[in-house]
Amino acid sequence: MSDNSCFVIMAIGDQDYSGQRISSAELKSRYDDLIKEAIKKARPSLDVIRADEVSAPGTITTDIVTRIMHSRYVIADVTYPNPNVFYELGLRHASKPGTIIIRDSSGPKIPFDIAHLRYVEYDNTASGLKALATRLGEQFSFMEGNSQKPDNHFLEMAKLTNFEFPSYGKDDKPLELKIIMEAMKSPELVQLISRQSSGEAIPTHELMRILGSSPVFAELFISKMLMDGSIKF
């Protein structure tokens, strides 16, 4: 994901609210002519993309989730009470800072659950475009200088309580620890390690039989052997 990526979350299909309707075509025009244009005016180098440009409308694909997690910035238009928008906003808030919430000043009242969040209001007019670009530029500048600062209540609580997020990155456990952890799954494997540690020469046919019962352990065991030559046959 490019460091200049900006993903836009907003309602895409026809939206019904308070007895009114806004069509998908109107929303597309708002994205192209107002929101995207304002983002590009504020930061011309940003690569701006909306969900329907990478997926069928109404679907939340792997590509969309990836962009939510990894994009440098996410702009979320919460003008209309759309479930996908709120779900995607929640995913982003749980992932990282760098989110800007916007809404049309003439739209329906913001739902109570997110009413406390800071947001930028805009008017869908020519002057509104200029004002939105200015506000977005200010937000981008602040985030560039405070890239690790939480920008929502969830991340603030995570920081305050030292919450440890699951780590799905590189597994950096020592090889010896991996071998022991895998061996604990089988008494025979535990016995094998004990015998090897005591210096016992294990017959090849027996070693192959034991290793064959656990391919994962076998891979770790052989890696250890190749690394330091300490395993005797």
CATH superfamily of the largest domain: Toll/interleukin-1 receptor homology (TIR) domain
On the 0 to 100 scale, the average pLDDT is 85
- Residues in helix, %: 40-55%
Low-confidence stretches: none
Distinct helical segment count: 9
Quote the beta fraction: 5-15%
Rg is 27 Å
Query: Which CATH first-tier class of the largest domain would you pick?
Result: Alpha Beta
Domain module tally: 2
Distance between the termini: 48 Å
Number of strands: 7
What topology, given as strand order, has the largest sheet? Answer: 4-1-5-6-7
For the sheet with most strands, the description reads: 5 strands, parallel
Note the overall shape.
Answer: elongated
What is the ordering of alpha helices and beta strands?
Answer: EEEHEHEHEEHHHHHH
In CATH terms, what is the fold-level topology of the largest domain? Rossmann fold
Estimated structural class? alpha/beta
The CATH architecture of the largest domain can be named as 3-Layer(aba) Sandwich
Structure description:
Helices cover 48% and strands 12% of the residues. The protein is an alpha/beta fold. It folds into two domains: 5-160, Toll/interleukin-1 receptor homology (TIR) domain (Rossmann fold, 3-Layer(aba) Sandwich), CATH 3.40.50; 175-228, no CATH class. Helix 1 (24-42) packs across helix 4, helix 2 packs across helix 3 and helix 6 runs antiparallel to helix 9 (215-228).
